[in-house]
Amino acid sequence: MSTRTSLSDEQGRFLADTFGDAISLAPEVLRVYASDASLKTGTVLAVYRPRNAEELSRFMRWAQQENVTVHPRGRGTSLSGGCVPTVPGIVVSMLGMDRIIEISDTDFVAVVEPGVNTADLQAECAKKGLFYPPDPASSKATSVGGNVMTCAGGLRAVKYGVTRDYVLGVEAVLPGGDIVRFGGRCHKDVMGLDMARLFVGSEGTLGIVTKLCLKLLPLPELSASVLAGYASLDDAMQSMARVFRAGILPCAVEFMNETVLEVLTRTGEVPWPDTVRSLLLFQIDGSSDSVPHDMERLCRQLDDALWRIQGLGREEEARLWAIRRRISAGSYVLGPDRIGGDMAVPRGSLLAALRRFEEIAHANGKRLIGFGHAGDGNIHANLHYDASDPDDAARTQRTHRELDRAVLEFGGSLSGEHGAGCLKDVSLQIPPRERELMQAVRRVFDPTGILNPGKAY
Amino acid sequence: MKRGCTQCGECLRVCPVYAMFRREEYAPKGKRILMEPLDPEFGNGQPVPDELVWERVRKLSRLCAGCGRCARVCARKLSTAELLADARSRNPHWTQFMWQMWIRAMGRLWPMAGRMAMLIPRGLSKSGDFAGLVNMARALVARPAPSPWLRLAPSKRVSPQRVMIFSGCTAQYARPAWSAKAARLLHCWGYEVVAGDAFVCCGGTLHHAGAYKAEAGVREHNLRVWKEAGKPLVATFCASCLHSLRSYGGHMEEEDAVLWQERVFPLSRLLADPVVTRTADAPGQVGYHEPCHWDGQDWDMPLLAHGLALGKGKGLCCGMGGILKMSDAGLSAAMARACLASMPSDAEEILTGCSGCVLQLAGEAGDKRTVRHWLDVCDIAD
Predict the structure, then answer these.
(1) Which residues partner with B353 through β-bridges?
(2) Do B9 and A77 touch (CB under 8 A)?
(3) Which of A363, A352, A372, A453 is nearest to A418 (CA)?
(4) Backbone angles phi, psi at B162, to 5 degrees
């Protein structure tokens, strides 16, 4: 790993002469790339924006020769410091490589560059009657490349899986400049090790992805949603279990704990009666014939809800999902600063884990904003606080650390979606021997350790 | 201390400047990272390194069209245009002074500037800042209005109410026909039209320039005019003027503020329950540009859609907002061209409902397309 803190004049000249406008060395530009949504900052020596794989290959060859650290970056939305330079280095921003090269309605694949916006890809696929299911809640803000690097999940993961399930092929540039291609556009391919999917969730530690071949599905004709209210999260979880036991597989199940409902009630009008303290939001999809039928089946299982409303088709569903979308902005009533968790637990442990998290928060004088993807046990456990109050800040940080430890009691994971970045204590979850093997794999791709050091594992 | 940007990145997708460059430093997020530490309310009191002082970050930060789209998608509702206006107000620059002069003191010279710009051969002004300014100046000269495409009449006349027309600078100095048309329509609907000639600039563009004193001056003048007229309804046919007029409420006594907010309307909203008749002169397909300053609630398009096949452009801001025309006329013009490129390809005629958008898009539309305010193509039914 490089320990340099600046580029030499000669290195700066080489970069500017070789890559021209694709390189920035101005301090005000470098500052923009020094942080991400974790709000942590590092030191950026230069920003490079590749225009194609061949040009990036030349850069990576030079970077390895010069032992300069490289930090790949998509839209910089990581909440776990995945884009923050841990040591001074050159940020490689992939946003300029954002073409949708092909959307095939015969092969059911999309070939894209990594900088394409996730929501834009979904919209372009939908125009052809095709469906790219991975849908992180922040899909309007993220890039597909970033989603692949963190194996982003999302609302529909319970039925459709996560990003990994849709990556068929990867083209990447390695430290040293090799351009490698794994997988392709076949939906089935068992030749060799599944290296394409090894890149998924690798958090930019193996190579810089320059092209992706993604699996697509037929676009469901119709969807419908139902928002059901309960006296407690306990009641809500029992209801959800009944739905699954009845053999119904929704494409999304979101839960909201009592604190979330208090936030929603304090920050706007709510349609449910006062007796409702917890919510489940279900979505089902399919054909225009099947959805009304499936909705009827679903609602039969929700007859224990105190209250419910439903919507058929996007327009009617929008008012239900608008409530879910209000959580993030509304939560600021509990404090102007936020620290978030995205832990995952086995689905059956969700209620117990959440109650345990609430106890920990309470013991530290905090409230836990608990919501997330109930269908796959992924909890967004957010804590709000006032950073200008040292006591509040310390209690919040302590709570956050204790939550991370508690999730492991349930056989859970510190991160279901965001990745470890540079902020998660990976050693809590992954034993030494297993980490050693991961590091050995990393060295095969990056023998001198120039790529995204101090991240992931 | 105010809490600043969370760097969530939602603003990238809606920012028209980011769309031109696809680089984070051009997005609202990037500009906030640079400007917040310099702001007394957002800054956390930490010293700012010399390489990130205002003089250094100004060049990037000022590339904002003031469209307000970032604030609408921001979880904290942070407006980068406001942050920039505050920074400009603390750091006056000669370009801001020039802009004030152009808006406040030189309005009567606009038509002459337009005629002079017409004399400059197009070959001498193809792109860049100079071309951006010349093309907009050319647009100050009004093209003859076509025969009406739509004839409007009320299905039922309203109960008599007094209305003042707020024309805005463009109509006042370069398109007086719009004000006359608006008055005829309101009269036809049964309103009593009160002279609004005493109104001056709405102050919106002065605000973006950080010229807060000048902005306060025009605001107070306009409110005085309104009060002296007996606080009637106010109708405007410019989305940007409407946006600015609505911001007056925050500077008024509560009772008056409520009344003001209740009485300021877009013209199209006052033309309630219209009977719209399409004429034989109406084109088959018409492009429509939705002004950013409708803030998500466009009242013009539904009115026009009664009689026209409108194809809404998929572009973002036309680049006329803020004072981008002054700070980077070349970029501003490039944004207009991007906006025009996103219009339906067969739409040779484009309508919009903001005076600034009309000038900006008309300046860059070239010879094959015409951009007009919708008032140019509507008339009252016989």
Answers:
(1) none
(2) yes
(3) A372
(4) -85, 135
Look-up of token digits 């020094």: A34
CB A148 within 8 A of CB A212: yes
Contact B160, B97 (CB under 8 A): no
| Cα atoms in the Cβ-side hemisphere of radius 13 Å centred on A20 | 3
Would you say domain A100-218 falls under CATH 3.50.30.10?
no
B11 closest CA partner among B36, B29, B33: B29
Q: Is B72 on the interface with A (CB under 8 A)?
A: no
Task: Give 10-residue mean pLDDT values along chain A (457 residues).
Answer: 85 97 97 96 98 98 97 96 97 98 98 97 97 92 97 92 97 98 96 97 98 98 97 95 94 96 94 96 96 95 95 93 89 90 93 96 97 91 93 96 95 94 95 97 97 95
Q: Testing the interface with A: which of B14, B18, B25 to mutate, by most A Cβ within 10 A? A: B25
3-state SS, residue A87: coil
Structure tokens at A150: 């963190």
Q: Which CATH fold topology does A222-409 show? A: Vanillyl-alcohol Oxidase; Chain A, domain 3 (3.40.462)
- Lookup result for tokens 């790529």: A451
The CA distances from residue A226 to A270, A283, A403, A453, B280, in Å, are 15, 7, 31, 45, 49
Beta pairing partners, B167:
none
pLDDT band at B2 (very low <50, low <70, confident <90, very high): confident
B56:A119 CB<8 A: no
Q: CA–CA separation, B28 vs B12, rounded Å?
A: 7
The C-alpha atoms of residue A272 and residue A279 are separated, in whole angstroms, by 10
Residues B32, B83 contacting (CB under 8 angstroms)? yes
Count CB neighbours of A333 within 10 A.
12
What does the domain layout of chain A look like in residue ranges?
9-96, 100-218, 222-409
Polymer length in residues for chain A: 457
Query: What's the rounded Cα separation, in Å, for the pair B136 and A300?
Result: 63
Interface of B with A in 26-55 (CB under 8 A): 29-30, 33-34, 49, 51-52
B153 strand-pairing partners: B275
SS (H, E, C) B41-63: CCCCCCCCCHHHCHHHHHHHHCC
Out of B1, B34, B73, name the one closest to residue A32 (CB). Answer: B34
For the segment B111-145, what is each residue's pLDDT rounded down to a tens digit?
777 677 666 766 665 667 777 777 777 777 778 88
Tokens linked to A69: 């650290």
**SS3 state of residue A73:** strand
Please report how many Cα atoms fall inside a 13 Å half-sphere around the Cα of residue B9, on the Cβ side: 29
User: Which fold would CATH assign to domain A9-96?
Assistant: 3.30.43
- Contact at 8 Å (CB) between B328 and B31? no
- Termini Cα distance of chain B: 60
Tokens encoding B18: 């980011």
Q: Is the dihedral of CA A413, A418, A423, A426 positive or negative?
A: positive
Q: Residue A36 is nearest to which of B7, B10, B77, comparing CB atoms?
A: B7
Q: In this predicted model, what pLDDT tens digit does every residue of B193-241 receive, in sequence order?
A: 998 999 999 999 999 999 999 999 999 999 999 999 999 999 999 999 9
Domains, chain B, in order of start with CATH, read 10-91 (no CATH), 150-270 (1.20.1050), 276-380 (3.40.50)
For A258, phi then psi, to 5°, come to -60, -35
Report how far Cα B323 is from the mean position of its chain's Cα atoms: 11
d(C-alpha A326, C-alpha A332), whole Å: 11
What DSSP designation does A150 have?
A: H
Beta bridge partners of A181: A171
Cα A23 to Cα A6, A16, A301, B182, distances in angstroms: 15, 6, 58, 52
Q: Is the ipTM of this complex over 0.90?
A: yes
CA dist., res. B16 & res. B22, Å (int): 10
